[in-house]
């Protein structure tokens, strides 16, 4: 694709090549609509299982295309639960229930979690490089975001105008909805799109929860005795 993958742009160290917040937002909506087609628009429901920046390709107009269906699973449109022998996906984006069934059943909500983690990368990739250590290395980013949003704080560690702050707050609120630990607490992709098209003042910040780092989920899978786990470890997407 002419503009490569989303990964290249959100991790760019060159400020001139970094995507603006408005463009990131349009890309996020485009990805959500693509997921809605996979989940609801095809003759057979498709769960991708590997939604991440590397698998989002951008055309000449920066319209996103979901790529790499190697791990995807086809389902009957009437099925809401997927049966799987083992986990699949990339560490850092894989849903907890795909690691271990103790978190719940595997379904399209597993893609919602991955989408939320990708939104998190899109928001986090835009953080000021001078972010205070207390708000970054010592505190898991989703937890920090939840604290800031729920306490009515500003995202002071981002370079934002009044317009772009609304976009950043909206994306942050939605990604916290999507990365809820239990799948039943996550919105459907149609609801995600609906939230993205509404004002940030209309969005609800999800209840407080313990946001777990991907490495902690990996250890939970190992300690719980889950078998047949085959995951991608993408060093660029940690």
The largest sheet has its strands arranged as 1-4
What would CATH call the class?
A: Mainly Alpha
Mean pLDDT: 80
Instruction: Let me know the CATH homologous superfamily.
Output: Transferase(Phosphotransferase) domain 1
Largest sheet, if any? 2 strands, antiparallel
Computed structural class = mainly alpha
Termini separation: 24 Å
Quick overview of this protein structure:
With 238 residues, this protein is mainly alpha-helical. The chain contains eight helices and four strands; from the N terminus they run H-H-E-E-E-E-H-H-H-H-H-H.
Could you describe the 3D structure shown?
Keywords: ATP-binding, Glycoprotein, Kinase, Membrane, Nucleotide-binding, Serine/threonine-protein kinase, Signal, Transferase, Transmembrane, Transmembrane helix. A two-stranded antiparallel sheet has the order 1-4. It has one domain: Transferase(Phosphotransferase) domain 1 (Transferase(Phosphotransferase), domain 1, Orthogonal Bundle), CATH 1.10.510. It is built from eight helices and four strands, in the order ααββββαααααα. The chain is mainly alpha-helical and 238 residues long. Helix content is 38%, strand content 5%. The longest helix is centred in the first third of the chain and has 21 residues, at 21-41.
């Amino acid at each position: 694709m002419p503009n490569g993958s989303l990964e290249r742009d959100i991790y760019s160290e060159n400020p001139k090549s970094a995507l603006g917040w408005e463009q990131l937002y349009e890309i996020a909506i485009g990805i959500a609509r693509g997921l809605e087609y996979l989940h609801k628009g095809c003759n057979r429901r498709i769960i991708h299982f590997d939604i991440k920046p590397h698998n989002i390709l951008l055309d000449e107009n920066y319209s996103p295309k979901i790529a790499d269906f190697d791990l995807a699973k086809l389902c009957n449109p009437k099925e809401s639960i997927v049966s799987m022998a083992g986990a699949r996906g990339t560490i850092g984006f894989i849903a907890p229930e795909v690691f271990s069934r103790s978190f719940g059943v595997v379904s399209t909500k597993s893609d919602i979690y991955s989408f939320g983690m990708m939104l998190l990368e899109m928001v986090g990739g835009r953080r000021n490089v001078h972010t205070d250590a207390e708000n970054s290395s010592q505190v898991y980013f989703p937890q920090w975001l939840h604290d800031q949003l729920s306490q009515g704080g500003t995202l002071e560690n981002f370079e934002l105008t009044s317009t772009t702050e609304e976009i950043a707050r909206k994306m942050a609120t939605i990604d916290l909805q999507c990365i809820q630990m239990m799948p039943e607490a996550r919105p459907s992709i149609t609801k995600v799109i609906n939230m993205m098209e509404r004002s940030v003042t209309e969005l609800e910040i999800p209840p407080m929860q313990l946001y777990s780092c991907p490495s902690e989920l990996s250890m939970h899978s190992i300690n719980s005795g889950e078998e047949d786990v085959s995951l991608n470890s993408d060093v660029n997407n940690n």
